[in-house]
Design brief:
8-stranded antiparallel barrel, Porin, mainly beta, about 280 residues, 2 domains
Length: about 280
Amino acid sequence: MTATCVIGRVVGRVAAGVVLVLTLALPCAAVTSTTDYGDLWYNAPAESQSGWGVNIAHQGDILFATLFVYGQDTRPHWYVASSVSATSGNAFNGQLFDVGSGTYFGAPWTGISGARTVGNIAFTFDSATTGSMTYTVDGVQVTKSIVRQTWRGDVLSGIYVGAVNGFGATCGNNGRIRIPGALVVTHTPPSFLMTLDFAVSATQTGRCTYRGNYAQTGSFGTVLGTYSCDVNGVVNAVTGTITLDEIRATRNGFTGRIAVVSPQCDYAGYFGGVKDSF
C-alpha cells in the first residue's frame, strides 16, 4: 500500500487576502537535499590554470574523484579517491590513492599493481559551482579554489510537462506552492523565456512567465530575471524577481532550483519539466 501526502497548491494572491488553493494527493517520498557536485572541476577563476583538473562523480553522499596533475618531474600524473564521504551537506573527505602500474590499454587486461595510500583529499563547496579542494600526496599539501569547467552551454528550448514547487512563509496555505502545468521554454542564449500554463479549477486558468539571462557554469545553468503570473484574467496578479539555479538539462528534460522575491509571496523551491515529445 502506498502512502499519500495531501498538499495544497497556492497559485498566488489575486487580490488582497484572496489565495487560490488546490489540494493534491501525491506519494510521499524521501529525496536527497544535497547539491549534485558531479562535474569536471579546475582552478578558479576559470582558465587561470588550464592543464590540470579533478573529475568528480557524485552518488548519494559519496564522491569518486580522479585528479590529473603534474609531478615534481613535471610529467603528468593521476590520483584516485574512490570513497570521499560527506562530512556535512557541502563538505567531503576521503583517502587519496596512487596506482603504480596497470595493464597497457592495447593488451588483454591483467589487472593493476602498486596501489598505495598517498594522503587525503577534502572538498568544501561554498556554492553549487565553486569550492575549495585540499589534498596531500606523500606529505606535500596543496589547497586550490575550484570551479566547474564550462566548454558548452545548454539550450533548453522546447515543450515540457512540468511544475514549480516551493515554500514561502508568507504565502498562505502553510506556505506551500504547487503549480503543475505545461512548460514552454524559448532559449536563445543568453535570453531565457519560460511560460507555465496551469489550471486553477475547471473554469479558471493561469499563466506564469519567467524571463532573464541564462549563464552556464559546468553542467549547471543560472537565470537571473523577473516573473509575473496572470490568474483567471487578472494580469500581473503576482509579480517579482527570480533566481533559477542548479539548472541541469538532459535528453529527458531539466530540473533546477527557484527563489522568488515578490510583494505577494516570497518562496524558494524547485522547478523542472519532462520533455513532451521526442
